[in-house]
Amino acid sequence: MNSELRRQVLGCFKQLHRTRLRVFDGDTNALIAARLKINEEFAKNRNVSDAENVKKLVEFGYQVEEVLCKSVVQAVQRDDGVYRARIREETTRLDNKPYSPMPETLIGPFKKKRTKCSDPEK
Question: Which of 8, 17, 50, 86 could form a disulfide with 74 if both were Cys (CB 3.0 to 4.6 A apart)?
Fold first, then answer.
């Protein structure tokens, strides 16, 4: 592996660990599990020497880092049994629309009446 690819791999490795520290801040179990998983995946692919495969793996690593940043939200239980979400600036936020069931008047005309099954051969 040439020095440029090696630099990219190490950069991805370090970035994943920095993201892990930021995303799972204060959660010792998650920090340890994420560290072990990152190290395990990099060790598993240590012997990959094809430049194209290495580039694909580095790109995948950055995609994983993006998912961690944007999708993972920690919930911390308070003393009163209520959970508090730790949402960071980079966390993706979607519109939160309250559930509104359809009124009964709209459902009525679309209900199918049940009929007895007739034998198709008769």
Answer: 86
92 compared with 33, residue with greater pLDDT: 33
HEC readout, the chain:
CCHHHHHHHHHHHHHHHHHHHHHCCCCHHHHHHHHHHHHHHHHHCCCCCCHHHHHHHHHHHHHHHHHHHHHCCEEEECCCCCEEEECCCCCCCCCCCCCCCCCHHHHHHHCCCCCCCCCCCC
Average pLDDT estimate for 111-119: 58
User: Is 62:15 a contact under the CB 8 Å cutoff?
Assistant: yes
- Total domains present in the chain: 1
Residue 16 in domain: yes
- Token match 């190490």: residue? 10
Domain membership flag for residue 8: yes
Is there a domain that residue 110 lies in?
A: no
Q: Give the predicted TM-score (pTM) of the model.
A: 0.69
